[in-house]
Amino acid sequence: MSTQNSGPETPVGRVDRILAFTALTLAALSVICFFAIIIGSATGMNHNDFAEGLWPVVAAIPMWGLPIAFFMIIALLVLSFVRKGRAAKRS
Q: Which residues cross the membrane (predicted)?
């Protein structure tokens, strides 16, 4: 088993951690809301029931949360590649 690193070690910054945890939280919340809508539909709720109360918010979270989480993960990857590229130039 090899113990070599593929590149120089770079410290993980605060922005990277915030992006990672926020994207994970937003994606998890979106999936939970998605399953809540599926369970609500399976229990006999019709289209008009989803227009009242908290349901519009529950329906909007997966619609907006998953794409935002995807772009946050892409931004995290770009930041990681830039940080590793700068560290490789320094060494």
A: 18-42, 54-82
- Flag whether 3 is in a domain: no
Residue 26 and residue 73 in contact, taking contact as beta carbons nearer than 8 Å: no
The domain containing residue 44 runs over which residues? 14-90
- What is this structure's pTM? 0.78
Rounded Cα distance between 91 and 70, Å, is 32
Q: Is residue 36 part of a domain?
A: yes
- pLDDT tens digits, 1-45: 555 555 556 777 888 999 999 999 999 999 999 999 999 999 988
84, 7 contact by CB (below 8 A): yes
